[in-house]
Amino acid sequence: MFNDVEAPQPPKVFTTPLEIAANLRMLQESHDPLIITFHERSQRFQSYVVGVDRDNNILELDEMMPRDGERYLESGEPFRVEGFHDGVRIAWECNEGLTVVSSSEARFYRGALPTEVTYHQRRNAFRAALKLSQLVSVVLDGEKLKGAGEIRGKLLDVSATGCKLRFDGNIEDRLQLGQVYEKFSAGNPLGLTQTSVELRHLHFEERLNATFAGVRFHNVTGQMQRKIESFVYQLQREARRFDKDDY
């Protein structure tokens, strides 16, 4: 069903300052969100890479959201940082304390560059894009959703492990990166109901007045997994047939 190039790739561990800085700069330039987790705590926090200085061995991270994670950082608790760039997971451990830097313009955290970074190509499943005329309606809801009422949007693409969604307007303040929402539904022909999804990406595009979200299916049943894979396979066949018709 899948090509060899789509097979799972083992993680790589980068240890040279050049490789480490290059990967962190990639996260910075793409403004990819980071998920921060403290070792003894279940809550997740969001941040961004805002500065990489290889010559002086300096890494700077943006102010954490929610802000209460800052007190764990100030007390010296070790934490893990995880970011995603085009399906690649980039992660590292931070066992040394960071310094809080505050000014009238910004608030951020400064410390040493990590000594090693894990680089893992996670996207090992065919990701099928839906035609604009065939976009599936989706509903996102759950106890962790901020504000009143469910959020309705459209399914842009889907793989066996997750999907990309589009919502009208800016809804970034209603969602939390890394949070699991237990009431995700997608209309026919996918036909998912009451599925749990974990929010992995979140970005508001002002030019389009739309919020784009990437979610990963969470604890799906075998029957539901087969339904998703069947839908992806159907889209894959249609895409191949469409490509063949172009010649």
Tag the structure with descriptive keywords.
single chain, 247 residues, alpha+beta, six-stranded antiparallel sheet, six-stranded antiparallel beta barrel, 17% helix, disordered C terminus
Instruction: Spell out the helices and strands N to C.
Output: EHEEEEHEEEEEEEEEEEEH
The stretches of 5 or more residues where confidence is low (pLDDT under 50) are 1-7, 242-247
What's the oligomerization state? single chain
Task: Report the total helices.
Answer: 3
If you average the pLDDT, what whole number results?
Answer: 83
Q: For the CA atoms, what is the radius of gyration?
A: 20 Å
Describe the protein.
By secondary structure, the protein is of the alpha+beta class. Helices cover 17% and strands 42% of the residues. It contains three helices and 17 strands. The strands form three sheets. The chain has a six-stranded antiparallel sheet with strand order 1-10-7-6-2-3, with helices on one face. Strands 12-13-14-17-16-15 form a six-stranded antiparallel barrel. Strands 4-5-9-8 form a four-stranded antiparallel sheet. Strand 2 (34-38) and strand 3 (44-47) form a beta hairpin. It is globular. It starts with 11 loop residues before the first strand and ends with a helix. The relative contact order is 0.13.
Quick recap of the structure?
The protein is of the alpha+beta class. Helix content is 17%, strand content 42%.
Topology of helices and strands:
Elements: E1 12-14, H1 17-29, E2 34-38, E3 44-47, E4 49-53, E5 58-62, H2 70-74, E6 79-85, E7 88-94, E8 99-102, E9 107-112, E10 117-121, E11 128-129, E12 136-141, E13 151-158, E14 162-168, E15 180-186, E16 192-205, E17 210-218, H3 222-245
Antiparallel strand pairs: 1-10, 2-3, 2-6, 4-5, 5-9, 6-7, 7-10, 8-9, 11-13, 12-13, 12-15, 13-14, 14-17, 15-16, 16-17
